[in-house]
Amino acid sequence: MITAYGDAPARTIRVGGTTYAYRELGPKGGIPVVFFVHLAATMDNWDPRIVDPIAKKRHVITFDQRGVGASTGKVPDTIEAAADHAYELIAALGFERIDIFSFSMGGFIAQELVLKHPELVRKLVLTGTGPRGGAGIDKVVGTTYRDILRATLTRSDPKEFLFFKRDQTGKSAAKAFIKRLEERTVDRDAPISLKALRTQLRAIKKFGRSDPSDLSTLTQPTLIANGDHDRMVPSVLSEDLQRRIKGSELIIYPDSGHGGIFQFHDRFASVAVDFLGDSA
């Protein structure tokens, strides 16, 4: 049984005219945990210090969205379409019930999926994310382009700017995070193309400027987490999610940004494991 994300084999499944790339690890059987990744990300962008502890107890699935990484097809220009594609993949893999772990844009997609298919999802983890129509979500486009430029000028990874505060603690956490993402050395995905990135940013902008969804209909146990200085999806939107989703739990990590769960991975991983529980 593989429980280290760096060793998870790369797999593909054909659905209609699209080939989806995915990785799986952990004990098979029961309800799997499906990971929904962030803007511009491939499967290589998941922090193994969060995936691995979950995979010790649960069957974990990560995947590349259409047109990203090793998946073929056209990148969706709406969050709703991305949710439809995720459902297509999950159904093709034969899962009738899942738990979801999501981060940032992945959280937007996860919300749409749960609203469309509430019977599919048992538990929901929403990190670094916010609700449809949340104030400031549409500004992620400008923030992303500015930080890509800053990263280019300093020969850094844009996530160092986008996910972490630029104080000494944040910079150190950012470097450690990027190093962890490089631990996998085989079967790595190709980076997202500029065209695909622009399409995803348009989808996020539409999501941020759309009318709010009625999240009061969600009955799934939900864990919400973020840093207290999120520049991409403002931290107040995590509090907004908690108010909208009845009975949800909220964790805000201090002195951290969009990637608060990665900066505090040692604390958060155990919380996520306990929340997700077993697969029965």
TrEMBL record:
GO MF, one annotated term: hydrolase activity
Domain of life, per lineage: Bacteria
InterPro entries: AB_hydrolase, AB_hydrolase_1, AB_hydrolase_fold
Keyword Mitochondrion: no
Descriptive protein name: Alpha/beta hydrolase
KW Protease (keyword) present: no
Organism for this UniProt entry: Luteipulveratus mongoliensis
Gene3D superfamilies: alpha/beta hydrolase
AB hydrolase-1 domain boundaries: 33-262
Record's keyword terms, sorted: Hydrolase
